[in-house]
Amino acid sequence: MPKTEPIKAVRGVRDILPEERGLWRVAEQAAARVAHRFGYREIETPIIERRELIERGVGEDSDAATKELYRFEDRGGRQLALRPEATASVVRAYFEGGLNQGPQPARLYLMGPMFRYDRPQKGRYRQFFQFDIEAIGGSSPALDAEVIEVARAWLFEVGLKELTLELNTIGDSICRPAYLDLLRAYYRPFKSRLHSECQHRVEVNPLRLLDCKVPQCQPFKADAPRITDHLCEPCALAWKTVRQLLDAAGIEYHLNPYLVRGLDYYTRTVFEFYPAGSTGSQDALASGGRYDGLAAALSWESTPGVGFAGGLDRVTELMATEGEQVITEPAAEVIVLPDGDLVAEAAEVARLIRTVRSAAVDYEPRSLRAKMRAADKQQAKWAVLFSAENAKQHKVQLRDMRTGEQVEVSWPELPERLLPD
RNA sequence: GUGGCUAUAGCUCAGCAUGGCAGAGCACCAGAUUGUGGAUCUGGGUGUCGCGGGUUCAAAUCCCGCUAGCCACCCCA
Question: Is A203 left (phi over 0), alpha (psi -120 to 50) or beta?
């Protein structure tokens, strides 16, 4: 048979191997614990959705929709997409599942894979995992602060305490249009001195001018009008309340007037958590904000909401570099090493042991020495070995791998001898 | 989508400038130990040199294309 190229994983995705999986479980369990502590209930939504939901959910002109979306047509000709984030799906499920009829707000959390077709590098994958929190059906600024507190509590819980919280508000549909006009008016005279994309932004999406990182566009930022000076009364009050609540909770934050969301239905609070000292935007561990216009953009009844998405890939990466130690339990506590081809007996012995402890059988046709070495490598706590003679008498040699002590035990005695302390 | 760096054993990497038998350490396998792990010693290379083409008597080495990883952009978790 001609040798052909072995089949590898597709670009930008990866396996979480057993050794690494323990660390992930720590991050996931912390997320679930924190979510429950704040009264959030778990929800799961499909990773495939109608393309429209996704496109309208992330903004049809956004990068996420135009160049990063995994889209495909199914066998029935339906236009589908892999979700690049969870919020639109959760909002859809909130209405479809009747959660809008229950107590408000609905506090929901979700964990799962998201997909974006962008160029892979460390901390950025085409399939990545998010911990997602959404509080839908409530407009209180207290929920904004709560969601930020949940994000922080999670990061704290997994040992990431050196954090920077960037915070801003972007107003709402009442006050933002007027502010955008001011911003446009301010930038128009400089338009020719901006880089090409920003020239376009002046008319189309002036908010994005504020977080442009191209050097030639920087000089104009400092004197640009700030949204915080042009908020309508309700937005100003909400903005003040959020900050007061964060202060009261002892949560430090850094006001960043250049932190924006480029989409119309994002409103008021926006925030991002970074590891302390980080500069790159690709290091964001969690980010979120309020999206009072999203439900309407999806053609559901207008409903406020706020939430965040945290990146499991980046969080576990950081946990590992911060030296988070995860005790890896042995795959099996007891390893049964039969002599020769005493397969049926070995299986029976293992079955008896499994009433009290995990047990695996070494069926490989190799020397006892090799099997012992393998048992040692797997950090088994006990080895159970027996010869044909032992098997006939329903006896085994029970060896404590830590002390090297070895005793002869009859089959019926095994569970008792191996009882967990 | 743009620019740059990289790709040799399971892992970390040397070899490449100046073409000439594919290497080291760790890991792995076997034995010493007459079937009982860890320590030690001995032996074993387990490889389409990322893939495809080109130049050459000869290519891991030089040239071209592709793929993948990493880095900086774009953007995001």
Answer: alpha
Length A368 CA → B36 C1' (Å): 7
Q: Which amino acid is at A377?
A: K
- pLDDT at residue A2, rounded to an integer: 39
Give residues with Cβ within 8 angstroms of A287, minimum separation 6: A270, A271, A272, A273, A308, A309
Q: How far is the CA of A376 from the C1' of B14 (A)?
A: 33
CATH of the domain at A238: 3.30.930.10
Domain that residue A134 falls in: 18-175+231-321
Residues A165 and A56 in one domain: yes
Q: Report if residue A307 sits inside a domain.
A: yes
Q: CA A372 – C1' B40 distance (Å)?
A: 18
Same domain, A42 and A143: yes
What's the Å distance between residue A3 CA and nucleotide B49 C1'? 17
Strand nucleotide closest to residue A121 (CA to C1'): B70
Task: Give CA torsion, residues A113, A115, A118, A123, to 10 deg.
Answer: -10
Domain tally, chain A: 2
Distance, in Å, from the CA atom of A122 to the CA atom of A282, rounded to the nearest integer, reads 9
User: Are A119 and A37 members of one domain?
Assistant: yes
Nucleotides of chain B in contact with protein CB (under 7 A) are 1-3, 28-31, 33, 35-38, 48, 51, 67-77
Segments of chain A with pLDDT less than 50 = 1-2
ipTM of the prediction: 0.85
Look at residue A340 in the predicted model and tell me its pLDDT. 79
How does pLDDT run across A131-185, given as a tens digit for each residue? 999 999 999 999 999 999 999 999 999 999 999 999 999 999 899 888 888 888 8
